[in-house]
Write a structure and sequence with these properties.
Radius of gyration: 24 Å
Distance between the termini: 78 Å
Strand order of the largest sheet: 1-2
Structural class: mainly alpha
Number of strands: 2
Largest sheet: 2 strands, parallel
Helix content: 55-70%
Number of domains: 3
Length: 153
């Protein structure tokens, strides 16, 4: 893989077709943060990526990052999600799935410096409490492992 120096980056292209709203937000955040470094940020649909755009230091077809994203964001995530739901059970898996929102807030705080509001913190606490309650209820409903002894009359 080629070594990439920050000073060599002059343009960042954010390309997306589905979910254009979130990619527009990402592009505007990057544009604002990279302006002081004289890096231009463009937002474009996947099928019209500029010819001078590189991926990891190499010029590639637009299919390479799309296939990579498809495998990571869809195939692997979907497969592991199904496996986890089977192990956790449907009810607990549904509540654990709500933790995705908690991680989104955590990543926004860590990487974008967006401080969570009090209402978001209360909501996160409620989600965690719901997961704990469902887990406790599942344990209460679980049958004992010890076999029941039956005596003959």
């Amino acid at each position: 893989m080629a070594n990439i120096k920050g000073s060599d980056i002059q343009k960042v292209v954010v390309a997306c077709d589905a979910g254009m709203g979130s990619s527009v937000m990402l592009a505007s955040q990057l544009r604002r943060q990279l302006k002081k470094h004289r890096v231009t940020v463009e937002h474009t649909p996947v099928n019209s990526i500029p010819a001078d755009a590189d991926f990891a230091g190499h010029h590639t077809s637009w299919l390479v990052p799309i296939v990579g994203l498809s495998l990571i964001a869809a195939v692997i995530a979907y497969s592991t999600g199904i496996g986890a739901a089977r192990r956790l059970g449907a009810r607990l898996a549904a509540f654990v799935g709500l933790a995705e929102v908690l991680f989104a807030v955590l990543f926004a705080w860590a990487f974008l410096h967006q401080t969570p509001t009090g209402l978001q913190l209360i909501g996160g606490a409620l989600v965690l409490a719901g997961i704990a309650l469902v887990r406790a209820d599942d344990r209460a409903d679980a049958p004992d492992d010890a076999p029941e002894l039956v005596t003959a009359a």
